[in-house]
Target: AAA+ ATPase domain-containing protein
Amino acid sequence: MLTWNLSVHVLTLHFIIFFTQMFVGVGPSRVRDLFSQARQNSPCIIFIDEIDAIGRSRGRGGLIGGNDERENTLNQLLVEMDGFQQNSGVVVLAGTNRVDVLDQALLRPGRFDRQIVIDNPDVKGRKQIFMVHLKKVVVANPPGKEKIAEALSVRTPGFSGAQIANICNEAALIAARDANNFVTMEHFEFALDRIIGGLEKKNLVMTPEEKRTVAYHEAGHAVTGWFLEHALPLLKVSIVPRGEAALGYAQYQPQEQSLMSTEQLKDMMCMTLGGRAAEEVFFDTVTTGAADDFRKVTQMAYQSVTQYGFGKAAGLLSFPTADQDQGAQVVRPYSNATADAIDREVRSTVDDLYTRTVQLLRSKKEQAAKVAELLLRNEVIMYDDMVKILGERPFKPQDRTFEQITKSAEKEPKAEVSQKS
Model:
């Protein structure tokens, strides 16, 4: 695509489509043609989108000759970029969300040596993005666009601009299907549920026994988190099936933080184990419903021992995990004895946390049963319903509104360096 703006030519290309071909030599040839065209149209900007499709580190994956064409194309790109002079009038830009897999030769001085990191927006940024997308949406007033934007910005930490736009579009579609003249907060709630949890499975029929098990399972998650100080604040619990495998889910108030303490990680693991613990406390048998919970807990437990320095088996060393490795298999940089020690510590940690969770639910068995029975009747219960059954959480209240979160951010203490004479 060739466009003009302020008398500067812009060449925008998608590497994977334009350069990657089945015929040997086509990729390097097109790279040469691209840079030749750029020089002829100087001043010119070349923008290469998704450069990781062709710019991955060479010789990865252990396949001999499997990436020859891609590597030849990458080599030609490196040669062309080396041939530029400072006054050539051509600027090369690229975009990717996988800088970690790029070949280091691409990042050397004279090539892509300046990196601009565009993070997902914070709560204030999300509010501003919501306000932009809500301009073309007719919303209910009250609460009005600003209040809706503030409420949704608190609920969506880590969301990108595209995801925020998707929420607004989805809410508008839901309102249109309901034949509403305006979009209400309820429509935005439905849209957020759909994006986070997936589509409702209205055609899925569960037996009364299955529905009861799911209700007590989700109540176990909710009640466990309610009485753990460092667990995330609960927003809603649902036993409406959604997505590919979820028969129910609990939604929590995410926190925007960069660091996590050992207490927070352990409470999160206990909350994740709360579903299986509830099945053990209330029923004579357990089910396969906690499979995904176990996967999450296993990942958190191994990370705590092998990466975060929270365990004794690895000490203050950091070892890679399967999801970090770019190849098909992790090569463990430690002995079998260390691996056995890590496995034993992970198992012991999870067993101890599960015992703690079961004991907590046994002590709150009556309250958990009330939550589960309300879920069976209503299918969805909110924070206020939990307060009526369990009372307020017995801990310092966490920031829940836009005003509280922004004020807390402004009041964060700054580190001071004392100078000694």
In short: The first strand starts at residue 2 and ends at 5. The beta strands are 2-5, 8-14, 44-49, 90-95, 234-238, 249-252, 380-382. The chain has three domains: 9-106, 123-197, 208-410.
